[in-house]
Design brief:
Layout (H helix, E strand, L loop, with lengths): L2 H7 L13 H9 L11 E5 L2 H16 L4 H7 L12 E8 L4 H18 L3 E5 L11 H8 L5 E10 L22
Antiparallel strand pairs: 1-2, 2-4, 3-4
């Protein structure tokens, strides 16, 4: 596929098959994150441990329910809702609490997402896993992830083979947000 075809084919996948992601392909996918433009440090953490993914999922779900954000509270109240969508791989992108971590990690995330799409994997860009790090479990989780000192998760990506979605999201709108100045 051309880069334009990959971008066109990319979509947010919110259901995954219970299949492992091929190790060689996974390494190839996450390495692309290091090739992104950057203006500072960031860390890519690839989580395949099902128990740790489940723990982050459950803490994120609790964070959603207690967020005070109407959308998150409503989404979290859907029976069977799982914020990490049972993905076999969770990639967390972390950065220092100060600086441009949100920008650096978003750029790296896009590379990872496009590479995964090219190799036939579904992905979804996530911010909800960061809610798992707001409560009393924060320090233990940060230690478990073995992040550099002062780094916190900024966003995440679920990766896996696409399953059948049970919770429908509205279709993406074709946003008219481009203007040309000549």
């Amino acid at each position: 596929m051309s880069v334009f075809e990959v971008i066109e084919n990319r979509k947010s996948v919110r259901s995954y098959l219970d299949e492992e992601v091929n190790e060689e392909e996974l390494k190839k996918i996450v390495e692309t994150g290091k090739k992104a433009p950057q203006a500072g440090e960031f860390q890519i953490t690839v989580i395949q441990n099902k128990n740790l993914i489940a723990k982050i999922n459950d803490l994120a779900l609790t964070g959603m329910k207690n967020s005070g954000n109407d959308f998150l509270v409503e989404r979290a109240s859907i029976e069977g809702y799982q914020p990490l969508y049972n993905a076999p791989v969770l990639v967390l992108l972390s950065a220092p609490e100060e600086g441009h971590g949100d920008i650096n990690t978003a750029l790296a995330s896009e590379n990872i997402i496009l590479a995964a799409t090219e190799l036939g994997y579904g992905t979804v860009y996530l911010v909800t896993p960061t809610l798992a790090f707001l409560g009393e479990e924060r320090e233990g989780l940060l230690k478990e992830l073995n992040l550099p000192n002062g780094f916190i998760p900024v966003n995440g990506i679920a990766i896996g083979k696409e399953g059948v979605e049970t919770i429908q999201s509205p279709p993406a709108e074709d946003i008219d947000n481009i203007n040309y100045v000549k």
